Automatic annotation (TrEMBL):
The keyword Signal does not apply. Residues 7-21 have a biased composition (Basic and acidic residues). It comes from the Eukaryota. The keyword Transferase does not apply. It catalyses: corticosterone + NAD(+) = 11-dehydrocorticosterone + NADH + H(+); 11beta,17beta-dihydroxyandrost-4-ene-3-one + NAD(+) = 17beta-hydroxyandrost-4-ene-3,11-dione + NADH + H(+); an 11beta-hydroxysteroid + NAD(+) = an 11-oxosteroid + NADH + H(+); 11beta-hydroxyandrost-4-ene-3,17-dione + NAD(+) = androst-4-ene-3,11,17-trione + NADH + H(+). GO terms for biological process: glucocorticoid metabolic process. InterPro entries: NAD(P)-bd_dom_sf (IPR036291), Sc_DH/Rdtase_CS (IPR020904), SDR_fam (IPR002347). It comes from Pipra filicauda (Wire-tailed manakin). Pathway: Steroid metabolism. Keywords: Lipid metabolism, Oxidoreductase, Steroid metabolism. Residues 58-70 have a biased composition (Low complexity). GO terms for molecular function: 11-beta-hydroxysteroid dehydrogenase (NAD+) activity. This is 11-beta-hydroxysteroid dehydrogenase type 2. PROSITE patterns: ADH_SHORT.
Length: 488
């Protein structure tokens, strides 16, 4: 007979109890598991009781169906999920866990409410849009992170991770302390209209000594600045495509700020008058965009660097998301803004030892200057059609160019008129003790950059076409054109 059979036939031997006596096995009432699972005295962790027949050992009581499928009982399930009872896993009950995470959210809500109450606008403080506008996505991500922590991590570790994420959110929501103006001097380019004009007016009300460059001293924008601003504001005529204009402005600013240095330079002037495919855009438009948006800003910045270094000042440059993403029909403008953004990132790294801080502004779609003037864009369309070679015009079709122009005009009709978010970002870049490297004023930019950074290329291209301009196929690619060719 095998050993297994002999063992099963062995009679039950009473083990000595704690008081040294040899007695019968404990009664079912005293056989309770320490893990307090629903199985009670039938818990598989308890030793088996002797079978009443034959003195052998009986099989353990069957587990509930769910526990049998998972391979563990209720206590084991709680331990696997990090929410075990006392003495197992985290050592905290689920109720206590809910209270801990709830307290974290309560503290976060209270801190955000307190910060929102402290953001009431005051004299000389450009505080921008309401606090909660840019916190919807971060709060949603925090809620998702907290759910994952509760499901897969022990309570102390999950709570610590969620608290760290909440602290980061509070730090981002905190308004940065602004430095005193104290008669600092700032040069703002492109003040005829749009961001430049609004920024020059706002900085003048804050007490800055503003040098505002315009293309024409008699333009409506220049006249408006003369009427609405104080005597501290000085208008300067400058065309960034003309080196003589740049040198004249440099000499004027150096003569008036040589003793104190120049605190800030706002590179705002920009140019774009072509909305078309890269193949349809004249080469001269590429050169003009590069001259204004890149080379002009480069020459002006290099000329002012000695004054900026002496003051430990700021360089704030208005670029565009078109320099980061391949917006259709903006090849000339986007290429110049991409070069400008990379140049300013290089300046930021190189000027850091001098204490000069460099920031980029990447605004959304706003109504500035001629961007929302249908007459202007219709005129540019006619000039483009007149300049196209006949071969290109036959391949793309005149209706293709007209549709692009129409879609752009329709897109700009919903552009934002309130420029305060951009102006406040520029102000923060000039006066914040630790300004951000990049500012994204405008609605939907966070979602747009998320798609651009994390999704496949074909998804990015489809999104930009659906969001901005998505014309029909060029004439040579249409089916009806092929049918006409076959008939001929």
């Amino acid at each position: 007979m095998s050993r297994a059979v002999l063992r099963r036939a062995e009679p039950h031997r009473a083990e000595p109890s704690r008081d040294g006596s040899h007695g019968a096995p404990p009664s079912p009432a005293r056989r309770r598991c320490r893990c307090r699972c629903p199985g009670g005295s039938r818990c598989p962790a308890l030793p088996s009781r002797p079978s009443p027949i034959g003195g052998g050992r009986s099989r353990p009581a069957p587990l509930p169906r769910r526990a049998a499928i998972n391979g563990r009982g209720g206590a084991g399930e709680r331990q696997r999920r990090g929410r075990a009872g006392p003495g197992i896993g985290t050592g905290m009950e689920p109720g206590l866990e809910r209270w801990a995470h709830g307290a974290l959210w309560a503290a976060l809500a209270g801190s955000l409410a307190l910060r929102a109450a402290r953001r009431a606008p005051g004299p000389g403080r450009g505080l921008g849009p309401p606090l909660g506008r840019g916190l919807v996505l971060p709060l949603a991500l925090l809620a998702a992170l907290q759910s994952l922590c509760r499901a897969w991590l022990p309570l102390p570790l999950g709570l610590a991770l969620a608290a760290a994420a909440a602290g980061l959110l509070l730090w981002r929501a905190a308004p940065r302390g602004l430095l005193p103006v104290a008669g600092r001097a700032v040069l703002v380019t492109g003040c005829d209209s749009g961001f430049g004009q609004a920024t020059a007016r706002h900085l003048d009300t804050m007490g800055f000594r503003v040098f505002a460059s315009v293309l024409d001293l008699q333009s409506p924008g220049a006249q408006e600045l003369r009427r609405s601003c104080s005597a501290r504001l000085t208008l300067l005529q400058m065309d960034l495509t003309k080196p003589d204009d740049i040198q004249r402005v440099l000499q004027h600013i150096q003569a008036h700020t040589n003793s104190t240095g120049l605190w800030g330079l706002v590179n705002n002037a920009g140019f774009n008058d072509t909305i078309a495919d890269a193949e349809l855009s004249p080469l001269g438009k590429f050169r003009t965009c590069m001259e204004v948006n890149f080379f002009g800003s480069l020459e002006l910045t290099k000329g002012l660097l000695p004054l900026l270094r002496s003051a430990g000042g700021r360089i704030v440059t208005v670029s565009s998301p078109a320099g980061d993403m391949p917006f259709p029909c903006l090849a000339a403008y986007g290429a110049s803004k991409a070069a400008l953004s990379l140049l300013m990132d290089t300046f930021r790294s190189e000027l850091q030892p001098w204490g000069v801080k460099v920031s980029l502004i990447l605004p959304g779609y706003y109504k500035t200057g001629t961007t929302c003037d249908p007459a202007f864009w219709n005129l540019q369309k006619q000039r483009l059609l007149a300049s196209l070679p006949q071969e290109l015009l036959q391949a793309y079709g005149e209706d293709y160019v007209e549709e692009i122009n129409h879609q752009f005009i329709q897109f700009m009709k919903v552009a934002v008129e309130d420029l305060s978010a951009v102006v406040n970002s520029i102000t923060d870049g000039l006066l914040a003790a630790n300004p951000a490297v990049r500012y994204y004023p405008g609605q939907g930019l966070g979602f747009m950059y998320f798609i651009h950074r994390y999704l496949p290329y074909f998804v990015r291209d489809l999104f930009l076409k659906g969001f901005f301009i998505n014309p029909k196929l060029p004439r040579a690619l249409r089916r009806e054109h092929h049918n006409d060719v076959k008939k001929a």
